[in-house]
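Hi everyone,

Forwarding the result from last night's run.
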Amino acid sequence: MRMRFLVRFSLLLALAAPFCLAAAAGWQEVAGPLPDDPLGVRRFRLDNGLEVYLSENHDTPRFYAEIAVRAGSKDDPDDSTGLAHYMEHLLFKGSERLGTVDFSAEKPLLDKIEALYEEHFRERDPARRAALYRQINEVSVEAAKFAAPNELDRLYRALGGRALNAHTWHEEVVYKIDLPSNMLRQWAAIEADRFARPVFRLFQTELETVYEEMNRALDNKNRVIQLAVNAALFKKHPYGQKPTLGTVEDLKNPSLRNLHEFYRAWYVPNNMAIFISGDIDAGETMAVIDECFSSLEPRELPERATWDDPAPQAREEVRVPYQAEEFVLLAFRTAPRGHPDAEALMMVDMLLDNASAGLININLNQRQAVLQAGAFPQPMNDHGAQYLYGIPKPGQTMEEVERLLLDQLDLIKRGEFGDWLIPAIINDYKRNEKTGLESDVSRVDAMRSAWIAFEPWERASALIERMGKVTREDVIRVANEYFSGGYVAGFREDAPRPSPQVEKPPLAVIEIDGTRLSPFAAEIMAMPAKPMEPRYIREGRDYARREDGRGVTYYHVQNPMNDVFSFSIAVERGGNNDPLSGIAARLMQLSGTKSLAAEALQQEWYKLGTTFSVGADDYETFFSLTGLDANFEASVALLMDLAWNPAVEPEALEQLKANLLRQREDARKDMATMAEALVQFHRYGEDSPFRRMPPADRVRALTAEELQGVIRTAMASRQSVSYTGTLSLERVMDTVRRLHPVKGLLDDTPPPVYRRVRAPETAQVWTLQREAAQAHVQIEFGGGLYDPERSPEVQLYNSYFADGMAGIVFQELREARALAYMAGARYNVGRARRDQDIMLGVIQTQADKTTDALAAFVDLLDNMPLEQARFDAAKEGLVTSYRTGKIGFRGVIGTVRGWERRELLSDPRPGWYQAILDRGSLEMVSGFQQEAIANRPKLISIVGDRARIPMEALKAFGEIRELTLDDVFIE
């Protein structure tokens, strides 16, 4: 190891120093890039213990950063579950310098709020607790007068940030941001301040936001069964006893003092790490990090608790009711991260389910022995778990699904799997590693996962090497050791379930001013940054396009990073043209060829290291391959053979038809699908895709020849071939020409069908009954046909009103009024020149708050607040996104094809960018809002419990129509 000091970067530090809290202290480079590490990770440690992992990737002029704390829900106090997750939310509220216009005046009020919450935490008398809440309300209203709300989000947006987020899990809380590469010093100043002196302001509204997040979770069918199974699998350990969101009772009774204690215990530099991947220089980055983060003071960590929690010794069954498809979840205890058996257990998981040729994939999914099945592992620091899941097909019991899942484990225990599978899985890992290098998020995820697990990078980066040493005997041994004893069998029964909800406390509306700016934020925005200019896409440099004279348009992009290709054939013939397109695509996935049975075909794909998919949306049918360029021709040959020479067993088609009809029944119980079906019916009436599906008797009458004909018709039609890889365009064209059975002119595709949004003269409110904690609300109306000339004003409107946490919708509905955990809006432009724009607004809120949320949302749409400071930040963020938003090489073809559908023959962004710079103004946004948004008759769709929704009050928003499932779904 060697010590580095900061001499060469003295000028850089002089620029950064005013914004950081202390002078640089020093740092060590723990290790440079390992010889065989494709990420080229360099590891550092500041003198205060903060660890730093850096990976340079100069593909785009941005970087992605995470700051991780090695403490999560496992470390929650027993009487304050959910505390780590609360902390995640409150670290967005600012500090003594950020998020406030006068901290000295604000602090006494915040101290009083904390004291009142602590008294409320310990008080048990309901009347006294209510009186304390009233006092909290009063003081919170006063404290909010000094807050600069959501300033972190607004500041990052002005700097060109995106993907600002965080997550909490058992052993970690992680804070994330993606920024332009010239904003590194600004990022360091903000984050160092954020973690050095956080202030838990606006706690009251954030508390209700977490309540809504819990209500959302209570309606989640998968979470219901997962929590029940985990509670049985870990009877004492927090993995099963402390849900990340906490318990309902603990959420109702928060303690700010406990939050401060959690922060002081775990949010210390010797328990934190920074991970960055992107367009950075490691040496300069460390100079900045040292200058800003060395002020964090290390402290001795608490002794980490341990739990004596033996694994189940026999089969244990848990059952939970939920109105949805029946679902089976089996859980086995396995080994923790870093255990000598970890790699062999990973191999067991991949032998079960690798999405293509695992035992579950072939024996259960391909053969349609169940409706759906799969497996996934969950390695953690103290224990591991392996899950297997399945959904019964028509006429099948959950116990039968359980037996089929266990049978797949038994095959592994007996060694009854092909010798080729383990090498193929290793190749799959290698390919995924290559594609993972293309993503800064994937790079950071790999580094952070190793650190959370206390795993040295030398070991973490050698995972594939260790996987390559796993033998058949190792797999059989661990399968028998870990999967022969006790386990938990979880059954989610299709039955009514009480719909609990976290009732909202009597919180006052907090009046906040989203234009307030703290002096610290103003200083950050004034920091110098290296100028950056947009990089646009140019044909001949970034991609090639060529017609072959017979109806095929080729798009080609050179892959500069690896030998993994992406290939697709897209035909402008989708569900709007032929409602059978989606079913035909599903049958193709289950088919073999005249020379290869369906199972053998799946295995052949996997041996080649190729993934194949086929699908159809409203407009296109598409066939996609991803694999290694060395196997490109063999992969295309398989695709053509499957498309033109399909073979399917009659039993497979009959089971597919039965499964389709069963899934339609299940869709009527799924709240998200119900909400989408209602929205589509409200939008298009009988033209809704849920109403245009083939009815049940038509499905039952389908033949293989009819469905295979749909695929052949698509493949014989004019098409676009897209390829990204290392092969030349000429090589790709030659391969497709030789292997495509149609040698002459391809058929014309039918004209695209673009549906029009219903336009009633007055607003309509259509509802669908579903007993649930939350109501799902969507507000929408159609706009004009796509017009590229309006794109600058549309972009500015979305940036100002709708985009992310800094947009008006999020600020007003969640931040100011705590009406929802999820709220958003967007003016969506048409897919093509003759397609219609549509304005969308969505909010999910506690059922009894539906009318409050709806009133606030409608008011924002019709009477959008006009604030110059907000607009300036929104415009600056949009301009910065142009300057730093280089499109990655795999995204070029999709972007170009999108422009072409809109009859834009070259990159339109230079003109849009200049128009935004020259003419972009608050008046432009206001004019667009008045013309295209304000007071338009709205289609309001609500799925929720009518017994909890104030139905009488809904009449104020439009004519109410109470629909049934039969109205919005086909039989």
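The first helix runs from residue 10 to 16.

Cheers,
N.
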